[in-house]
């Protein structure tokens, strides 16, 4: 059964703590990265056979394989993928930044250029489930940003092929290159390059603990979006909410991962009991019931507090990946939310809308990192370069201030570089 805790009657540490995976994967991942750096494609093919039970001759997915996959996917799902892609494009188009130039002072020009990265790597998980939604969410912002090449890596199935729905989503999103490799080895290949995998500038996308650790280890060699942990949902709900809806929404994240976190915060104890009962009723009906059961037992909790303002405070302390506001007039509470990856407003807005169709990105900060980081966006695929221009008269007006400033820092070469130009006749 999910734990029911009364806020203020127990140690607050129990409210905010969560079980974590204590497996040490650093050494395993480090060895895989070294192997890929040294042996390239040979290592990727070896790991495909070892971890995915797949024999791979050619790591690169051919145009023919993509066309065959698209044809094999039912037309209704193709329609839905296109609808989702359009919603994602519309939302992310609004994030595009513009370069700017300033020439407000005589003889001085400053500005900033927005430049997309040349090549982005997209990791799409495989294994226990296929995620075409991740393909759309992570590649469409890159394309909007103007990235020249999007390289997707994803684990092959045991027959050596990629799941057709993954390839169909990649086709719709305009992914340029698709590689049959997953796990830490795929991250290493994107970071350092192999014979088949081009080296990228940025790696994005969620994955298991080996993928997360690999992203951590290659950071600095390449940029990454975030270190993603297990999925999270926190629901703030009052007693008017249907307990069946709240239970279903909690389980929508619990089925992701045994270490996923599903939390309900409410001001109604009777409602908490009903949601707990509904969770027990619904778990046996799920295809991934064993995973959901473990998640609820490991990290599931219902927190009962005195009022909704306190519930918001608890949510801000936890800083969840997904936050649902199942209350009357949810927009009244929006400005009070300081820390959340994505907010779902009202009782008719299940988190699953954000996973697939609504448009805002579903690659979100986890493990409390919403306190200082943001959802994946167009910004993740661009960099900013600034520039400065001075005429000789403009330099003359400020050079001695630069000299004085530099001298205060003990940097006499800096000082001289500013005034030496004024000494010329």
Summarize the structure.
With 425 residues, the chain is of the alpha/beta class.
Description:
The protein is an alpha/beta fold and 425 residues long. The chain is 43% helix and 16% strand. Helix 2 packs across helix 9. The N and C termini lie far apart (86 Å).
Terminal Cα span: 86 Å
Helix content: 40-55%
Q: How many β-strand stretches?
A: 14
Q: Which whole number gives the mean pLDDT?
A: 95
Task: Give unreliable regions as ranges.
Answer: none
Spatial strand sequence of the major β-sheet: 1-11-10-9-12-13
Order of helices and strands: EHHHHHEEEHEHEHEHEEHEHHEHEEHEHH
**Rg over CA atoms:** 25 Å
Largest sheet: 6 strands, parallel
Query: In terms of structural class, how would the helical and strand content be classed?
Result: alpha/beta
Secondary-structure topology with pairs:
Elements: E1 3-6, H1 12-16, H2 26-39, H3 41-51, H4 63-72, H5 75-93, E2 100-102, E3 108-116, E4 119-123, H6 132-145, E5 149-154, H7 164-173, E6 177-180, H8 183-192, E7 202-204, H9 209-218, E8 223-224, E9 232-237, H10 243-254, E10 261-266, H11 269-282, H12 289-299, E11 301-304, H13 308-318, E12 322-326, E13 342-345, H14 351-356, E14 382-390, H15 392-408, H16 412-419
Parallel strand pairs: 1-11, 4-5, 4-7, 5-6, 7-8, 9-10, 9-12, 10-11, 12-13
Antiparallel strand pairs: 2-3, 3-14
Helix pairs in contact: 2-3, 2-8, 2-9, 4-7, 5-6, 5-7, 6-7, 8-9, 10-11, 15-16
